[in-house]
Design the sequence.
């Protein structure tokens, strides 16, 4: 646990979820999301992505639980969701985000059907209990617009607008085939997906992309820290809405410089004229506080925020030392005063 000298109100706890050798998550335990069930408020459910090796030859979804948000125990029945033969997530099931609708639980996640050349898309599953068993319903969307490139990932948070309607943030993973052919710079952007869920079959689920996609007003110019934004988490603190995107400067030479941002708004749609973006975690400057003895640049992804009753933000996010290629989950906490100070800079 490390407190930044220049940020006395933030604390880096380091890695809180690591890999398990010779298990489904032996190569990665990462890209997670936090869920708390209204009937079990003292248990934190951390759904995460597990890969059997650092090449991600196969990926499935695991579960770890905690009573304090600091120490997590992996479920004995991991993985709790794995792609079946012929499903949209046969090769990869990852980036889970869970919500409750009435007495059922729904998981939005990304998947890849077969080879690494197939496109990553978004799908949905359901369960009677967050611990499972989870049942795959089917595919929601796959890349269809040029900005969505050849694959898409969802963020770790789901916003409930009412008992049936939710918002999901997602982002492109790569460029379109045409942009790749022209060797254009990869720019990752954020979009919004609106779902109406009335049951456990695809006929009971309505899917709509937000008309203003992508939210490119948050992307900075070439070379800026927010050149690319992706996989954002969401939190509402009193009447304010906050988005926490991962950010990368892909135009710089590898290893890329990566960051975590914070966007404040009076709307969950984060429109341009009512939103502000600031840098929250500076990867290059804070990397040794997040991963002690790090050997290369730090990779950052999938920030999953949790606002605690004691007035602190617990931010779980995926980290990797690019020297070893092993993705894990780290935790940094902030008090509200620091968040407000960041937004005022």
Sequence:
């Amino acid at each position: 646990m490390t407190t930044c000298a220049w940020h006395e109100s933030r604390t880096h706890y380091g890695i809180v979820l690591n890999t398990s050798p010779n298990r489904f998550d032996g190569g990665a335990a990462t890209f997670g999301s936090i869920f708390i069930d209204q009937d079990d408020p003292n248990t934190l459910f951390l759904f995460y992505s597990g890969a059997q090796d650092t090449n991600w030859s196969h990926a499935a979804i695991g579960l770890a639980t905690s009573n304090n948000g600091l120490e997590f125990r992996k479920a004995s029945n991991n993985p709790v969701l794995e792609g079946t033969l012929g499903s949209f997530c046969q090769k990869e099931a990852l980036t889970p985000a869970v919500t409750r609708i009435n007495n059922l639980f729904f998981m939005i996640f990304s998947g890849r059907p077969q080879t690494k050349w197939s496109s990553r898309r978004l799908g949905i599953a359901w369960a009677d209990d967050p611990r499972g068993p989870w049942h795959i319903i089917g595919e929601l969307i796959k890349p269809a617009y040029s900005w969505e490139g050849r694959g898409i990932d969802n963020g770790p948070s789901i916003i409930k607008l009412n008992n049936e309607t939710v918002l999901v943030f997602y982002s492109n993973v790569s460029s379109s085939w045409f942009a790749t052919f022209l060797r254009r710079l990869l720019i990752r952007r954020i979009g919004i997906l609106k779902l109406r869920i009335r049951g456990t079959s695809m006929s009971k689920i309505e899917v709509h992309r937000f008309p203003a996609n992508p939210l490119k007003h948050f992307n900075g110019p070439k070379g800026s820290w927010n050149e690319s934004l992706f996989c954002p988490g969401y939190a509402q603190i009193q009447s304010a809405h906050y988005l926490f995107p991962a950010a990368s400067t892909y135009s710089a030479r590898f290893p890329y410089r990566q960051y975590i941002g914070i966007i404040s708004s009076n709307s969950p749609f984060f429109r341009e004229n009512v939103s502000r973006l600031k840098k929250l975690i500076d990867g290059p400057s804070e990397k040794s506080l997040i991963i002690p003895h790090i050997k290369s640049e730090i990779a950052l992804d999938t920030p999953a925020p949790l606002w605690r009753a004691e007035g602190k933000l617990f931010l779980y996010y995926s980290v990797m030392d690019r020297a070893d290629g092993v993705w894990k989950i780290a935790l940094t906490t902030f008090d509200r005063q620091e968040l407000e100070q960041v937004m005022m800079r």
